[in-house]
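Good morning N.,

You mentioned wanting to compare the apo and holo forms, so I went ahead and generated the holo version with iron/sulfur cluster. This is what I fed in:
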Amino acid sequence: MKRRDFLRALALTGLATTVEPGKAFDMLIQTGENAAGNAYDMVAVMGGEPEVMFRSAIKAMGGMSKFVKKGYKVAIKPNIGWDKTPEMAGNTNPKLVKEVIKQCFDAGAKEVVVFDHTCDDWRKCYKNSGIEEAAKEAGAKVLPAHEESYYRTISLPNALNLKTAKVHEAILDSDVWINIPILKNHGGAKMTISMKNLMGIVWNRGYFHANNLQQCIADISTLSKRPVLNVVDAYRVMKSNGPRGKSASDVVLAKGLFVSQDMVAVDTAAVKFFSQITDMRLEDVAHIANASKLKVGNMNLDKMKIKRIKL
Amino acid sequence: MLRKIRIAIALIMLSLLSFYFIDFAGIAPVETKLLTKIQLVPALLALNIGAIIILLLLTFLFGRVYCSVICPLGIWQDVAEFISGLFKRKRKYKFLPTRNLLRYGILGAVTLAFFLGFTFLLSLLEPYSIFGRIASNIFRPLYQEGNNLLTTILGWFNNYKLYMVEITIRSIFSFIIAGISLLIISFMGYRYGRLYCNTICPVGSLLGFLSKYSLFKVRIDKNKCNSCGVCATKCKASCINSKDHQVDYSRCVTCFNCLESCKKDAISYDWSLKTAANEKGPNSGRRSFMAVTGAGLITIPLAKAKNTAALLNGKKAFKRKQPLSPPGSVSAEHLLSHCTACHLCVSRCPSHVLKPAFTEYGLGGIMQPMMSFEEGFCNYDCTVCSQTCPNGAILPLTKEEKHLTQTGRVVFTLENCIVYSYDTDCGACSEHCPTQAVTMKPYKDGLTIPTVDPDICVGCGGCEYVCPAEPFKAINVEGNAVQLEAKPIKEEKEKDIKVEDFGF
Ligand code: SF4
Ligand code: SF4
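and this is what came out, ligand included:
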């Protein structure tokens, strides 16, 4: 690289360094705040466009600024696993992703990054899902995640099978991160929702499949740096042939959205929502019960404060 | 002036073509493909009549301009020659007698072998393919290395404009062949100018034969010439016999170096027929350069390590009987009779599923592209290789056609499957299957296990690539010798489902 280009690159990216918060601080952000000040444990919305539903959900949750503070570096993990257009409901709805990013910036985020460890060719997934474009429009950076060098090993002391995992540095280097899965049917895991979405922050997914998938999904959900928010996109729902989907007939326009800090709870709710479309027993989605056993969250929705909004 | 124009065009040509080969990010404009289609052997194999006519006309009009500005390997030798000029103060060529026996012998042998179905010889000696292999096996990894270095540096500054790429050598054999070709060709260019083009290259021989009759030629005006011989020392084709004022047109690659060298203005490039008397080519040659080609032919005995260990606990290894040829290649036979192993498809395949074969297709098919699922699988919607092949070895497919092209058929081995051996959920295969030729059917205790429908399978290998079962995959794809039409995906009727409530 020429000296001039080098300097230009410096100028463009800006040299302002990130103040990395320590581990203890992390814990505080990720879990502490919720228990104390939240009006609701979960907000469920139905009947609007993705961005509209999110706006009312986050308002009910107390506003984005409760989760994202000024100057934060935020990582966002939608599902961008497949080379599919938004209509096919293989990936998170780009409009929703865009709205979440916008609100992060409105809340004062310094930087927002978006990534997923995709199943199909990552460039095609990023592009055809519409997420790359939407994210960039909202001012976020879209990071690659297709090489092992982007991942760092963390240990999962509370896990049963998956004792360590290589997790994408965007998650590890963020102040907070937001999980935006799409709700869909899944041949192996039965359902993919919040916790299954965490497979995309990990490098070696094959290990999951080979070592009791349902347990490994629960295991990765025990990571100490939990998402501050889980926003389940159930606007379009792939009811069958998931996670890839065969044709448009797999997709149902359900217009739902669920937000919670508790992955187990929001996944439980989502399965119940889903089972109105096609049969799906909560027991068969074994990673949810497995995670609840590992104290990742709460399956008992009756004990929770849930706000239901119909638009 | 002519020389400068030649150099300019040649450099543009070489850069564009090289970039087309090494461009892993798909940023080269699609039009670049045109440059591969006007290469002679690809045009012949694809029966690309337009390109063939243009090339023949070009040669009949202007001589071997193909060799000076179109053929990337020719230009590459000029680059090597130029570099040698930087080191040695004065590079002096001298007239060499032709080696017609050798040249036309090779041309004949290559043609004969090709029609007998042994394409390997053509692949090995044909310049465009040699260059293609050099570019994809050697230049490309270098380019990627550079990219990764830059990405790392930018990464320090939180710039993610670039991204890392995995650098893989898809076939050691092809890599070695490409390396040897690069060394030999560059060395020959460095030391002997266009010796390769005039002794070995079958395309050079063919065009050389034609260019004896071309209209525009480098002509020596006997009346002006004082036989100083400067022109001959500049001629990298070693084809100027200044004593007899003769140029061997079958070897002249129209580099125009001689034009500028002549102080007497005795050499010109024109169409006048007045010096026709001089146009008798010198006689045939003597020494054999076969040894050089022999070097390229070395074969490496590759002992394949077999995993015999875990056969014990009832696991079964899968042995592919027929390799999967790229979608659109019609059949292994069609591929073998059209492909010269330039590796453009291998290079441009975004999914890293194409790889040069070793002996999977038999000896005649060495280095030809096949699908292999170690590093990737064939993207359902991708048609890059079929759109990119200049030879017509892989015919262009639309996305819809590709969706119905069955390159191979899925085979499931229950004994190896994770669900069967460990009683846990897996389903990675079905997850990846674009056609749902693998679906998960109820098994026991709420578990599901794969069931396959080979008729709708397209042979993309998604399932094989992703299956985590060890040491043997539980799901594999067997190649089709002739590509079949997959049954279209059954569209289920769209049910009008309304979700009215939260359900919790
Ligand atoms: S069964 Fe395997 S090879 Fe066949 S289409 Fe599905 S994933 Fe591809
Ligand atoms: S990916 Fe392999 S192990 Fe897993 S269900 Fe499919 S065939 Fe079985």
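Residues B 410, 432-435, 437-438, 457-463, 477 surround iron/sulfur cluster (ligand 1) (CB under 6 Å).

Happy to go through it together on a call whenever suits you.

Best,
F.
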